[in-house]
Amino acid sequence: MLSEFDLIARYFTRPSRRFSPVTLGIGDDCALLSPPHGSQLAISSDMLVEGRHFFPGADPFQLGHKCLAVNLSDLAAMGAAPVAFTLALALPEANAEWLEPFSKGLLALADRHDCELMGGDTTKGPLNICITIFGQVPPDQSLRRDAARPGDDIWISGTLGDARLALAGYRNELPLDKDMLNAAAPRMHAPTPRVGLGVALRGIARAAIDISDGLVGDLGHILHRSGVGASLDADLLPAGAMLSAQSAELRRRFTLAGGDDYELCFTAPANRRDDVLAAGSLSSTPVTRVGSIEAAPGLRLRDADGKPLDLQLTSFDHFASP
Amino acid sequence: MLSEFDLIARYFTRPSRRFSPVTLGIGDDCALLSPPHGSQLAISSDMLVEGRHFFPGADPFQLGHKCLAVNLSDLAAMGAAPVAFTLALALPEANAEWLEPFSKGLLALADRHDCELMGGDTTKGPLNICITIFGQVPPDQSLRRDAARPGDDIWISGTLGDARLALAGYRNELPLDKDMLNAAAPRMHAPTPRVGLGVALRGIARAAIDISDGLVGDLGHILHRSGVGASLDADLLPAGAMLSAQSAELRRRFTLAGGDDYELCFTAPANRRDDVLAAGSLSSTPVTRVGSIEAAPGLRLRDADGKPLDLQLTSFDHFASP
Asked: Is B212's Cβ below 8 Å from some Cβ in A?
């Protein structure tokens, strides 16, 4: 049986790096961070609960990846570059068969983004993973939800809906064949945070959010906080490769109100289209223009012919959902 | 039924302050923090789990206090002044009868220490409260665990053992009368973080730790990381008011290896005794000298006559304990 200190030492402690802003890492009452001169820190916390955000018995390597990915995605949505994170972990038992792959999945993604595990907490309890992440962004260059302006284009990174399609398959909401489920599943289990794109959009995009609860709901936060409305071209929304093979009705539903996409939805002035495309190129991230911000409040959906669509869609709410 | 957004708005969102280092608070993908020029950030995460760190059905006002208090205590142990915190909360249901007093207990303590709630996460799940706290401390003035030197005095703030005594009462480990349990209980449910003392000890103390898992274990971390040993005068340890009325054997056991004390254990050079006492005065915190750091590894306990004591004591471990 591993003790709390053994498991921190074995799976989560690594040599400190040179040139790190983390002055003091794991092992004291606090970690110490020396923020780069003149930068702002972007800070986000996400808590993932077994049976809620992931299936009981979920693959621990993928889970380690996903827990950090959703936090990196929040940094991306602010235009912030990753710096470091803390990990608080409640575990039913200190089990090496789970901890080893979990820490590997987590730290592999952390290394890819040069984001240092600087501290945290471990305790016994129902499986719960809480990461708080720190990024840096120059003052006045953060991509805030309240910055959209009428006339802005609305853009989406990557594709939408395959994570929701996989969930529908697991839940037997749809008759999804096994190959298709296996092809869609990585979008649910191992999302790609759009960190490079977020940083490349500094000074170009105005508002941004990451799409975790479904596009309509998440874009709604931008509209609400910016005091604007929008029109969306529902049939221009980039559907995931597997969702593209489904009916038009399902494509609309899962691109507009899927969930777990972790793509960016952002707005940018119409005269910056070339710059947005260049930022997409630079970060190897596809970007698609899907609508525009308007002064009139509310969200209007259009079909491929420009005709109004009236869909009843709901966003994910952790307490309203079963 | 409150939605996730309703409950954040109703219980946790407050007007932003003037002159706050928090540039952007609750409501975006990330919060933004502008660290004061030239300071270091001290960062700590603590996760509290129902049935582990607090009893099922614990009073929510006290619980709100305690969750933040244990994090403030980590800042105190680094000599850091509180700045802001994030709160991630898993709740079985969005229940106003619980959330209102919880947020009041939490925010009352936050206000007392001018520590701003800057963001977080809420989700459905087994009750779990994870706070990540940010403080500031001038470079080279943090109180680290690895800074103790042979010849340093060892000091304790406040008193030890009443929280453990209350736990013993609740668990019926001891025949504790109701009045005594009621008098000891606040030390368990509503600890006082020694923030003022921690800040006052900057430049005076060398090493510090907060006593959460019992003095012997926590002092052990200082000894281990500093590469030193120590002698402790077991019978000089300041016992809590209720523990003082118990047997000498119990006093020793619960002051040396209680838990949940949230007092500071710190070391300081012997020629700074007056300064330590002045720091205690300035912060209205009693401080008691209880031993000394020595070059020889290991922890030696002495009784009131200076004779060696051989006690079998264990520190709390979250995975080794039932």
From this structure: no
